[in-house]
Design a protein that fits this description.
The structure is a single chain. This protein is mostly helical and 86 residues long. It has one domain (23-83). Helix content is 52%, strand content 5%. It contains four helices and two strands, in the order H-H-H-E-H-E. A two-stranded parallel ribbon has the order 1-2. Helix 4 links the parallel strand 1 (64-65) and strand 2. Helix 2 (27-42) packs across helix 3 (49-61). The longest helix has 16 residues, at 27-42. The protein is globular and about 40 Å long. The protein starts with 6 loop residues before the first helix and ends with a strand.
């Protein structure tokens, strides 16, 4: 929701997101995120800690990642993530 400039749009998006169940983040997710960061780095792919944490949680829970952020397509080249395909 970061980057949404209009408060009304932010509130609408927040309310819709609350309809999804929460997924716990555990310590091994942080460890896996660091490993994903290192793997991407070895392959010349840059990314943020938050992105790699999303990847780690998704892999552990066998979730597809639903995003419009093109960085995830780069991560998918070397990480065992699945991107949602509509």
């Amino acid at each position: 929701m970061s980057g949404v400039s209009e408060r009304a749009e932010f509130d609408r998006l927040r309310d819709r997101m609350r309809g999804f169940p929460e997924t716990e983040i555990v310590s091994t997710d942080y460890e896996e995120a660091a490993a994903f960061y290192n793997e991407c780095r070895r392959n010349g792919i840059q990314g943020s800690q938050v992105d790699f944490l999303i990847c780690a949680v998704a892999v552990r829970n066998e979730f597809s990642i639903f995003t419009t952020d093109g960085d995830f397509a780069h991560y998918a080249k070397v990480l065992p993530i699945t991107l949602y395909d509509s």
